[in-house]
Amino acid sequence: MTDLRGGIDLGGTKIQTVVVDETNAVLGEARHPTPTSGGPENVARAMEDAMREAAAAASVKAETLRGVGVGSPGDADGATGVVSGARNLPGWEGSFPLGEALTKALDTEVRIGNDVQVAVEGEYHLGAGRPFGSLLGVWWGTGVGGGIILDGKPWLGRGAAAEIGHMVVKRNGARCPCGRRGCMEAYAGRAAMEAKARREQAAGVETDLFKIMERRGRDRLTSSVWEHALREKDPLAESLIRRAVRYLGTGIASACNLLDVEAVVIGGGLGERFGERYASEIEREMMKHIFVSDNPPKMLIAELNDLGGAIGASLLITP
User: Fold this and answer.
1) pTM (predicted TM-score)
2) Ranges assigned E (strand) in 21-143
3) What is the pLDDT of residue 319?
């Protein structure tokens, strides 16, 4: 057994793994695409492969790690290791004992947490959130997730707190991937934005989004595809990003009116790629609805970048 810990960030498009030491320095990392078929078992195997690759990059075996923390979408039960309703992952409508499966596969302790919450805790302890006692994390990616720190402690509610992507920003609005209507994620989540783009193209709206996707060898509209479309000034891409920014600002304002946090940290795949560019616009939209407008929360961009979720997950294992 070493003093090294593993971390896995399970996302809708990628699986990012790291091995860190007692100072949280990254000694090895690997990134694999998230499977698009095969269900939870296939995803778990891909996670095992990515973790073993990161361990090899750190010149150790996965079995010798003190443990591995996992940040997972859906309802991630830290007590049981069961993940339920991770709808951004293939065939994951029900429940799957991810912690148990990975513990057996990697032969070391595995602890499960919500993907955004562990990433936010990483920012709180090691990144942009260090100066603050309270913060709201908004992870803009395949979906829109949230994480909350209040008085220096994570707020998990009864296990499903901080689902900011499912705050209603427009009653009877657009259909969300969760099946409900008017959620923030229905307008700002990458998967929902792609679905909207496909509908618009089918209705005759001109766009190069899907040509760019094919040209770049992708099977979905990843954040890099959106970036290239914006560089080429694709009108539909610009319109959908502006719509996402508008509803992000609206939802963040409502959450801040309730929680009155000191800071908001924007992260996630789209957040990291576009945060610096659009943070001021998101803030302007937020300020239209913020109640205490003379003392708004600080708007910050996540500092730990692509590795933040995995590093945050590693903190689930006590150093």
Assistant:
1) 0.87
2) 26-33, 68-72, 75-76, 83-84, 95-96, 110-114, 135-140
3) 67
